[in-house]
Amino acid sequence: MSATPTPEAAGRRPARWRWGRWLSGVFAVAVVALLAWAARQVDWHEVGDALRQLPLGVLAGGAALCALSHLIYSGYDLIGKRWAHHAVPTRRVMLITFISYAFNLNLGSLVGGVAMRLRLYAREGLRHPIPAKILALSMASNWLGYGLLAGGLFLFGWLEPPPDWHVGDAALRGLGGLMWVVVSAYLALCAFSPRREFRIRGHDFFVPSLRLALMQLVISSANWLTMGAVLWVLLQQGVDYGHTLSVLLVAAVAGVIAHVPAGLGVLEGVFIAFLGPTLGHGQVLAALIAYRALYYLAPLSIAAVAYFVLEAKARR
């Protein structure tokens, strides 16, 4: 059964359509400007020199693991699809998640993790609050796996802080224990909560089932483990894998606290502080520059093309 539009509605529709086209153009221009800004922040000669220092087999292994990590992350929103029961095809959901993640890594969470994701889901016809629920679930997934791995590594002393750091071994162990408490509390809430929706101070909170929470935990942990493997390979296995993963997890949270797009300088500072005395600053920096090229910049170039292809299809 269909309804016939009134003359007033028919007159309003073209105006709304023109506003939508105008806003789409503004958003596309903003994306191009941000990409240009990101490109200017990169010392491309340094990237090339670092890549040439590493053996081809190391680069190939690192690139394969980078692709695997992005593929795993692209499955984050599939949990949201299962939860919300929306009709966006699986391949399109994974493409949206990949594009958002690549922009998030390079330009910050507000651009990639939030704005890009919400816009692309709106293009697919999803309406509030479904995209917001998917976004919240994806962010929770990412930090749930982080808390499980970082909590265990810190709690059991895999990482010894440098002597000049203000955070001592006891503080790290305490932080690790706190992370495990938070993860356990989340799983308990998902398992035993009689309500699946809460409203606190005007904000809606949604609680998934325990099964979905465990899926979040598994996929996020797999992604963080793969990211650690990327750096371990690029460092040519100069230190053990657990130590490399621990340093990455410290650098990840340091980058979030610093609010620097792509964690520029933060990642390098943390890795040099922890691994520089063992491996030498040159080897650590070469591995990190290669990591940024393979994990950040290469996916961003693919994601930018994919984004504009989706925009072009939506306009047609």
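Next protein, fold it too.
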Amino acid sequence: MTTATLGGGCFWCLEAVFQRLAGVHSVTSGYAGGHTPDPDYRSVCSGRTGHAEVVQIEYDPAVMDYETLLAVFFTIHDPTTPNRQGADVGPQYRSIILWENEDQRDTANAVIQRLTRESAFPNPIVTEVAPLERFYPAEAHHQDYYLENAPMPYCQMVIEPKLKKAGERFSTLMRDA
């Protein structure tokens, strides 16, 4: 198994999509990329910890490769808006790829360069690519959020469209829900 750590807005949104991908063993919502030790949701939401809401994805690289995970990542969030995703505003919602080794770093940079060359987005990509220093799992009630709360309005209005978009674009990679 290999891990990837990605942030693109609310971790509930990313978690819900990545949990449905073939080859993904587990997805843990958490915090990374900042300077405050042992952050919690409240402190991260203050915007003063430097941490982003992220997901750590454990996956089988024989089934799902890192570049494909990044393709899904860039499909389900807006990598051109600094410190925000939709109505969620603050540095904790920034687009960030936290690499664990040089291969991940190089792949992330190559994917961003390719998307830029292809003009895949109308505005410049602002996704931060940084080394993963430490990952802090979020509190238990943030784990499996969509699976536990699908009928909630936030899930219906924000997460469902991301699931639909990923399902349409990556139908061959999706497991049955």
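About the second fold: DSSP finds six helices and eight strands in the chain.
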